[in-house]
Amino acid sequence: MEDAAGSPSVGGSYPQKNAEILSSQYGINLFLAGLLLTFAWAVHAVGISKSHLLSYLITLMLIQLLWMLWYLCRSCTQRRLIRDKDTHAGARWLKCGITLFAVITLILDSFKIGYYVDFSNCLSPTEGVFPVTHAVHTILQVYFLWCHAKDIIQSFKTLERFGVIHSVFTNLLLWTNGVLTESKHQLNEHKERLITLGFGNITIVLDDHAPQCNCTTTTLCSIFSQGIYYLYPFNIEYHILASTMLYVLWKNIGRKVEHHQQHKTPFKFHGITVGMIFGLMVLTSTIAIVVVYLIQIGGSKIKSELALTMFYLHAIFVLALMCTAGIVALLIYRLEDRSLDNSKNPARKLDAELLVGTAAGSWLLSWGSILAIICAQAHPKYTWYNLPYSVLVIIEKYIQNLFIIESIHREQEKVNDDIKTLRIVTISRGSTLSLTPSYKEIYNGRAARYSGEVPCLFKGSVCGRDNAGGAKEETSPENSSVTHSASDFSFYSRNSVTNNKRRILKNIAAFLFLCNLSLWIPPAFGCRPEYDNGLEEIVFGFEPWIIVVNLAMPFSIFYRMHSAASLFEVNCKT
């Protein structure tokens, strides 16, 4: 009977595997078409305007909205059914993070709507429809992820695969559009800064997509146009987080899960004071450095060189601290003997792949800078600081990736509550007696229970027992004092060492969490020495190096935010 019942499920796996392959190919083609359209608009291809790109994105968002509404309605009609859940997917802190980014994205959409109203005379209607559609899409998508990110879909699996993968690549295209728009703005500012650094031999041609008409309200237009680019980093993070959560949902379709109790690991500030203090110091200093950098860079040649030197020295110091913290954490792991959790977990696998994959972006930039320093004929003084900075970027990501990936794969230590039982010690007639049984007695089930008997603690020490006449007598080789056995001291010693290691690891994770947030801020808000250094443009050429930076920088920015999220999980798990 079991074989007969099992055979259909085996045969039924082939159509589902085909559906997975077909849906993935559909998503890839959807993305490539949008990517090509985005590239055509960026290079001013003949016959391709921004309205064509926005129309394509609006269509994709409307299709996703229809699918999400259908899924939510079907879920409401079946809400009484017990569904399998992936306890590792859609953590609460991740939902809170994407909600924060979504709120700022809604502010960005309101700015775009205001910008369209002020320039409505010369802008395409799609530029007004797009932010409205995007705002509705954002609200419904966040609600969908809050309610259904943990779902393991077992019905309408083929249809749901196409719906989820459509959502994944729609968010990736919206992410690409945000990255390109923000990069073009940064590139225009970068070209202007190169003149102040003395790189006059580089051709400066501004790529301007500004409207060809006057604004109805000059002050509001200035606020909207400048504010939009400061909000884009949050919009970019929102879409990449949404796409990763939806990808995990897609991987979980039709998955068979083992039903076991999942221990909740809430975040606690207790015990991480040192890591938080040092991390907040790094965060505060980084914000100050970014503010000074953005004010000084481009002002004059001397100011620009001082800004670059200041940035490199600060970054070298922070990266050196992060490398040291990561090495200490890995050494602690080497001293522990704990097995790894190798169970199937799509969310954890995706986290590890994203860490290594996105780190390649900053590695590419670092190796480009190292090669430029080696090959350049002239070296301004500030460019030499770029060498240790680039080397440390490579080493720090290598160490941090090892620490995070091993942390999320380590099994949580299970502590027996009985072992946590504390002895209540009292002094009676100059002797030390324990009123509670030891952890060994509890474990072996030999604790005395309300029999009027004082449990025997140690060999050769005080032991209360009944004599033949029913009266109690005390026997002890030494009446003056009683010492604990070596096994008890060994247990408490090991427990103390374990707690100290755990406390150190939690402080390291908290410190690295804040450091990664700190290092996310500079490139996300325009502090990019890879643009402003100037040496790489001379060695590789302006256009080739700018292409490399524009391709690699988004991955480098995402790496810091994803690392911060992973380290937050490590801190909760440790």
From TrEMBL:
Molecular function as annotated in GO: proton channel activity
Signal peptide: none
A GO cellular component entry from the record: plasma membrane
Segments crossing the lipid bilayer: 26-47, 53-72, 93-117, 129-146, 229-250, 271-295, 311-333, 354-379, 504-526, 538-559
GO BP terms: inner ear morphogenesis
Domain of life: Eukaryota
Cellular location(s): Cell membrane
Membrane topology label: Multi-pass membrane protein
Transmembrane helix recorded as keyword: yes
Keywords per UniProt: Cell membrane, Hydrogen ion transport, Ion channel, Ion transport, Membrane, Transmembrane, Transmembrane helix, Transport
Record family assignment: Belongs to the otopetrin family.
PANTHER family named among the record's database cross-references: PROTON CHANNEL OTOP, PROTON CHANNEL OTOP1
Name of protein: OTOP1 protein
Organism of derivation: Lophotis ruficrista
Gene: Otop1
